[in-house]
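User: Sequence for Polyketide cyclase below. Tokens please.
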Amino acid sequence: MAAPILQAQIDINAPVNRVWELVSDLSRMPQWSPQCRAMKPLGQLRAGTRTVNLNRRGPMFWPTTCRITEFVPEKKLAFKVNENNTVWSYELEPTEAGTRLIETRNAENGTSAVSNFLVSKFMGGVPSFEDELIEGMNASLQRIKDAAER
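Assistant: Structure tokens for Polyketide cyclase:
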């Protein structure tokens, strides 16, 4: 069963190339995301590149791995989290004042049974966890905006 698409967006008063520079530097993901503590690409960024990651929520830490599924400079970066089948993406659209940045979490085939069990058992259930993810997406986008506009 498909999980709901989670999405947030923000308008940034900076050119697309500046926003892309921030979004595509995956080593900076911990600066943006409240849950990410590390994201390390294994090789040059392009479709197919893998990453190893460390996430944290309160006292809980967990590792994940991803594969970049789309890499279109100054337009779109997407990666699939292998452990739960979710695809996270950042899309950039030019606007009159700069850039619209859209962050999306999609799980068109649903999340994995293990992920659902762990979220239900240890993270307050799927609905509250998804609300928290949207809050985190909005926080991430605001942090990227602040950095791009500096």
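The longest strand covers residues 60-72.
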